[in-house]
Amino acid sequence: MKLIIGNKNYSSWSLRGWLACKQSGLHFEEITVPLYGEDWEENRRADDLAPSSGKVPILWDGDGEDAPVVWDSLAIIDYLADKVGRDRFWPKDETARAMARSMVAEMHSSYLALRRNLPMNIRKRVEGVEIKSEVRADIVRILSLWAEARARFGKGGPFLFGTFCATDIIYAPVVSRFMTYGVPVPGFAVTYMEAVWTHDWMQMWIDAAESEGWTIEQFEEPAR
Ligand SMILES: N[C@@H](CCC(=O)N[C@@H](CS)C(=O)NCC(=O)O)C(=O)O
Fold first, then answer.
1. Alpha helices in 85-130 (DSSP H)
2. Candidate from 11, 12, 14, 55 with most ligand 1 atoms within 8 A of CB, to mutate
3. CA distance 137 to 102
4. Model's pTM, two decimal places?
5. Cβ of 138 less than 6 Å from ligand 1
6. Does ligand 1 have an atom closer than 6 angstroms to the CB of 6?
7. Atom number in ligand 1 closest to CA 35
8. 99 Cβ contact partners less than 8 Å away, ≥ 6 residues apart
9. How far does residue 55's CA lie from ligand 1's centre (Å)?
């Protein structure tokens, strides 16, 4: 498999696709295409990125004209779960799984204020960031979902549904935002975020993000 991703420092959807590939346990090659860099317009029109119309992440499963190609982080999770078995990605319990799937869908379709105002920027540390009311509403909603998942289904481990699953994958960039923008969160969330941040795969991603040389100015200004 070949996964095409954007800059590790900024590309939150790429992080999700990459964690999904890791979670699948399958071997994959990763190719980084620097977002909005000098060659971005040319790169995004290349054949490899054509199916997603120039967006990352995009997963190619094999070579050749008929090789399956999947774009969009949520489709990548679904595709890989079909390939390696649902239980690697989703809780076994039906009630827990219903909530996990809903939380993933909600992250994918919502929280625009949080995403726009506090763009993922793994290297950055911001103190005293202004949190607008619409961003605060997103944060409150996310924290209430995390609290409920942890309280009802988190007994088997430190993650939202106990063991690391699709929900942690999809909320990992939110963990990064809360950490780097110093968003005040209750104790249970600090513990959860620490578990995600120190996860081996997250640490690999963070290390790579920190050593990347690219800077994207438009993502360097929080709370615009
Ligand atoms: N809904 C898509 C979002 C993909 C997306 O917007 N990726 C961003 C990078 S994080 C991108 O490719 N931006 C480049 C552009 O839109 O020009 C997903 O879940 O994968």
1. 94-109, 112-117
2. 55
3. 18
4. 0.97
5. no
6. yes
7. 14
8. 148, 149, 152, 153
9. 5
Q: Identify the residue whose C-alpha is closest to ligand 1 atom 2.
A: 72
pLDDT tier for residue 217 given thresholds of 50, 70 and 90: confident
Residue nearest to atom 14 of ligand 1 (CA): 55
How many angstroms separate the Cα of 217 from the Cα of each of 36, 69, 112, 121, 123?
10, 31, 20, 11, 13
Q: Give the nearest ligand 1 atom to 40 CA.
A: 17
Q: Does the beta carbon of 12 lie inside 6 Å of ligand 1?
A: yes
Report the mean per-residue pLDDT for the chain: 96
- The C-alpha atoms of residue 31 and residue 57 are separated, in whole angstroms, by 10
Check if CATH label 1.20.1050.10 holds for domain 87-205.
Answer: yes
Fold of 2-86: Glutaredoxin (3.40.30)
The atom number, within ligand 1, closest to the CA of 11 reads 10
Domain ranges of the chain: 2-86, 87-205
Q: Which residue has the tokens 């919502």?
A: 110
Residues 6 or more apart in contact with residue 49 via CB below 8 angstroms: 4, 33, 43, 55, 56, 58
> Residue type at 202?
M
